[in-house]
Specification:
This protein has 174 residues and is α+β, with helices and mostly antiparallel strands. The protein is built from five helices and six strands. The protein has helices spanning 13-23, 25-35, 37-42, 73-94, 125-138; strands at 45-49, 54-58, 99-110, 118-122, 142-151, 157-169. Strands 1-2-4-5-6-3 form a six-stranded antiparallel sheet. The chain is globular, with a radius of gyration of 17 Å. The N and C termini lie far apart (34 Å). 37% of the residues are buried.
């Protein structure tokens, strides 16, 4: 039997500020210009974001299209990763102690040709919060497999990804 894990406020003021910046198109564009220029070029947008889920859209157009007249898999992959990574970033920001996060695995399945806006939604925010709480309590690396589903404007699934995120409490420097 495992000991109960202490929780922390995943909706504190720092996280609320982060969310409002990520939902503001101008602020998000500035962040992407500095940290994720390819995501900016592809036209990614965070469309919804709270403690439980996040959604990221990628447009279909000249910036994100492949020669087969569909959205290039790399653009779809970026949007999928961002929908899971935004949740992890928020939880790490909320943590009372420093925590690192890193992708250690990814799978993708493409089920329909993406020929309009594709929106990826991940609903694994609580699982990430629990993982960060566990690493804070015992210092061991904790992995979370986050699933995100991409749908077109008609609500039809076009792709499904899983990203394995590893969270680990950072050691204090002496």
């Amino acid at each position: 039997m495992t000991a109960p894990v202490a929780t922390f406020d995943v909706d504190n003021d720092k996280v609320q500020s982060l969310r409002s910046k990520m939902l503001n198109p101008v602020m998000l564009s500035g962040y992407m210009l500095a940290k994720l220029p390819l995501a900016l070029m592809a036209g990614l947008r965070i469309t919804s974001f709270d403690a439980d889920h996040s959604s990221v859209s990628v447009p279909y157009g000249w910036r994100s299209q492949n020669p087969f007249r569909s959205t290039y898999f790399a653009a779809l992959s970026m949007a999928a990763e961002m929908s899971t990574g935004a949740l992890g970033l928020a939880v790490v920001e909320a943590a009372p102690d420093p925590v690192s996060m890193l992708i250690t695995g990814m799978t993708g399945e493409f089920t329909k040709k993406a020929t309009d806006v594709t929106t990826f939604t991940c609903r694994d925010g609580r699982a990430m919060a629990e993982a960060v709480a566990r690493t804070l309590s015992d210092g061991k690396s904790v992995q979370v497999v986050a699933e995100t589903i991409g749908t077109n404007q008609a609500g039809v699934e076009v792709a499904r990804f899983t990203f394995t995120w590893s969270f680990k409490k950072k050691r204090r420097r002496s």
